[in-house]
Specification:
The protein starts with 5 loop residues before the first strand and ends in a 10-residue tail after the last helix. The longest helix is centred in the last third of the chain and has 18 residues. Helix 10 packs across helix 12. Helix 2 links the parallel strand 4 and strand 5. The chain has 353 residues and is of the alpha+beta class. The chain folds into two domains: 133 residues, Trna Endonuclease, Chain: A, domain 1, CATH 3.40.1350; 193 residues, no CATH class. The chain has twelve helices and nine strands. A six-stranded mixed β-sheet has the order 1-2-3-4-5-6, covered by helices on one side. Strands 7-9-8 form a three-stranded antiparallel β-sheet. Helix content is 40%, strand content 20%.
């Protein structure tokens, strides 16, 4: 706090009221006036604090109106506001329950966080309710920061894994209503895309595929992979995929349906799951699995790779949790995790990026 010229004041006179607690920033050369209050450059945070054992809610409602006055007097200031309320009475367990009315939440948007304590089912419960992503790092439980995840997206290998090619074919998977050649081809070429076989450059063994007026070249893969793709794009598997996409088949049912396409790797079966419901079921490969294991604190070894459907379900829970907490679009999160995993080397446990 000294290094950044920050100070904490209690009972701080602020905009005609006395605030319970204030965090302020002093100028770069404080101490030349009668009191340090004269050197305040900006007020970073104001907190109104109330503890009541069992009385009514008027003291809490008064503090809400006080915060409202602060914000409306200076709507463009950077000050962030906090309501810290402890009320020792029994409340109902309501997700996202706020002390503020719907109209009050409009002026609170982007400026206010509620810190609340109360009894629910005879147990004291503590909650944080942030309005408009305030305190976005609350519950951020990852070894990489938001900024590292965001920066990693910019280093994703778009030449090898074309964004336009992938998303066009995902749209086909989403919109076709029955088994058509267009749908079968989309599933086939997405699997070639996953194998890194789609390029903007022609090779002696590649063939052309046109997507929205642009020509891509698909290179041949191994006989084993060709066999997996052939099984995955057979009519019965495509029909199962349509049912799974339209929620007429559960994940477990679909998993049993497609387990037979290969017994050598989990990557292509899980990718086949992904292309039918991409926002719910992420792409799994060695790189993203490495990020997941490293984030858990596990030692990264040469053989660190996903091996089973249980591994996929573990990773899916991790991935979807990260999408929710980060607020980022799922494909951006996927790219970021992939790049982070690409940078991680064997034996990086305990080391930062």
């Amino acid at each position: 706090m000294e290094e950044n010229q920050l100070r904490i004041y209690t009972e701080y006179t602020y905009k005609g009221f006395v605030a319970d607690l204030a965090i302020v920033k002093l100028n770069d050369d404080p101490g030349n006036k009668n009191h340090l209050k004269g050197d305040i450059e900006s007020v970073l945070a104001i907190m109104e604090i109330k503890y009541k054992a069992g009385s009514g809610d008027k003291p809490f409602l008064d503090d809400i109106r006080k915060i409202e006055s602060y914000i409306k007097l200076s709507p463009r200031e950077i000050t962030q506001y906090y309501l810290a309320f402890v009320h020792e009475i029994e409340y109902e367990n309501i997700e996202g329950d706020s002390w503020l009315t719907t109209s009050q939440q409009k002026w609170a948007n982007g400026r206010l966080t509620e810190l609340s304590g109360c009894y629910i089912d005879e147990e004291m419960q503590w909650t944080v309710l942030s309005h408009h992503e305030l305190n976005r790092n609350y519950k951020w439980e990852y070894r990489f920061t938001r900024e590292e995840l965001s920066k990693a997206v910019n280093h994703f290998n778009e030449l090898k894994y074309s964004h336009a090619f992938y998303h066009y074919l995902l749209d086909v998977m989403k919109n076709e209503t029955e088994v058509t050649q267009k749908l079968v081809d989309a599933a086939k070429y997405l699997m070639y895309w996953k194998l890194g076989k789609v390029s903007a450059k022609k090779t002696p063994s590649s063939w052309e595929v046109k997507v929205e007026g642009k020509t891509y070249y698909v290179a041949e893969t191994t006989p084993r992979n060709r066999q997996v793709i052939a099984k995955a794009t057979a009519q019965d598997k495509i029909e199962a995929g349509l049912k799974f996409r339209d929620n007429l088949m559960t994940f477990n049912e679909f998993k049993r349906e497609i387990e037979s396409i290969t017994n050598t790797s989990i990557v292509l079966p899980t990718f086949y799951t992904h292309i039918w419901r991409p926002s719910e079921f992420p792409i799994l490969d060695v790189k993203v699995w490495r990020t997941y294991k490293w984030n858990k604190g596990d030692d990264l070894k040469k053989h660190t790779k996903p091996m089973s459907w249980n591994h996929y379900e573990e990773y899916t829970a991790f991935f979807n949790g990260l999408v929710k907490v980060s607020g980022e679009e799922w494909r951006k999160v996927d790219k970021g995790i992939w790049v982070i995993g690409e940078k991680l080397k064997v034996g990086t446990v305990g080391k930062e990026l």
